[in-house]
């Protein structure tokens, strides 16, 4: 059977009502994939699972994710861990973006002959200088 948004939502609702998946006990992707197979006979991949979760979130479903896994948030307080996780992720991505911009500016000024035949040594020498 193919994964659908409704099947995934049903599994999350069922698990929440049983107390097996909560904001304090989220489920990792690999375990959710196993649960989908065992409970609904759905065979899926991590990529398909993420796309389906994204589709549900886009529709406004309160599916949250943290570094510990996914869960269905039905109380205001349950949203906070996911908001904090997303905020820290955004901050890290902004730092990465700024580093890449600085690197791009350095590369723009660099002698392109340095990188015609790049080596580990050349890269270390150039970027650690």
Overview of this protein structure:
- The protein is built from five helices and two strands.
- It has 129 residues and is mainly α.
- The chain has two domains: 1-74, Winged helix-like DNA-binding domain superfamily/Winged helix DNA-binding domain (Arc Repressor Mutant, subunit A); 76-129.
- Strands 1-2 form a two-stranded antiparallel ribbon.
- A hairpin with a 2-residue loop joins strand 1 (63-66) and strand 2.
- The longest helix has 34 residues, at 76-109.
- 13% of the residues are buried.
What proportion of the residues form beta strands (DSSP E)?
5-15%
Count, helices: 5
Number of strands: 2
Judged by helices, strands and strand pairing, the structural class is mainly alpha
Which class of the largest domain in CATH terms? Answer: Mainly Alpha
Whole-Å distance between the termini? 56 Å
Helix content: 55-70%
Tell me the Rg in angstroms.
21 Å
Mind telling me which CATH architecture of the largest domain this is? Orthogonal Bundle
List the helices and strands and how they pair.
Layout lengths: L4 H14 L10 H12 L5 H13 L4 E4 L2 E4 L3 H34 L10 H8 L2
Antiparallel strand pairs: 1-2
Short descriptors:
single chain; mainly alpha; Arc Repressor Mutant, subunit A; two-stranded antiparallel sheet; 6% strand; elongated
In short:
This protein has helices spanning 5-18, 29-40, 46-58, 76-109, 120-127, and strands spanning 63-66, 69-72.
